[in-house]
Amino acid sequence: MPTLKCPSCEQVLRLAGNSWHCDNGHQFDRAKRGYTNLLLAQQRRSRSPGDDKAMVQARTAFLELGRYQPLADALLAHLPDENPPGWISAVAKAGTPSSLPSGWAA
């Protein structure tokens, strides 16, 4: 089973509640939209890393145009009916977990 490693110390990351953490106490919280940013602060080259409100709105507007839908449909057609234990669900289009098969957790 694939595992995530802590970008700071390379220990295994485990999901507990809404955060990924390692045995050395490093913690990475899930964002409201369900993703987890594993970039360390010193690796971010911006004074304000991450997406601001305008970027989230622009991405949402672009995704609503449906440009990625053919790719999403092709990928979804190859998913098993249920999420195998240990897999991580990745949804390309934020806000549309209902597009995943019913046995997959969003």
Account of the 3D structure:
- This protein is of the alpha+beta class and 106 residues long.
- It folds into two domains: 1-47, no CATH class; 51-106, no CATH class.
- It is 18% helix and 8% strand.
- The chain contains two helices and three strands, in the order E-E-E-H-H.
- The protein has a three-stranded antiparallel sheet, with no helix packed on it.
- A hairpin with a 5-residue loop joins strand 2 (19-21) and strand 3.
- The longest helix is centred in the middle third of the chain and has 11 residues, at 53-63.
- Residues 89-98 have low confidence and may be disordered.
Beta-strand residue fraction: 5-15%
Strand order of the largest sheet: 1-2-3
Amino-to-carboxy terminus distance: 19 Å
Structural class: alpha+beta
Number of helices: 2
- Provide the residue-averaged pLDDT: 74
* Principal-axes shape call: flat
Q: Could you spell the SSE succession in H and E letters? A: EEEHH
> Helicity level, as a percent range?
10-25%
Domains (count): 2
Low-confidence stretches: 89-98
What about the largest sheet? 3 strands, antiparallel
How many runs of DSSP E, i.e. beta strands?
3
Radius of gyration, taken over Cα atoms and rounded to an integer in Å = 16 Å
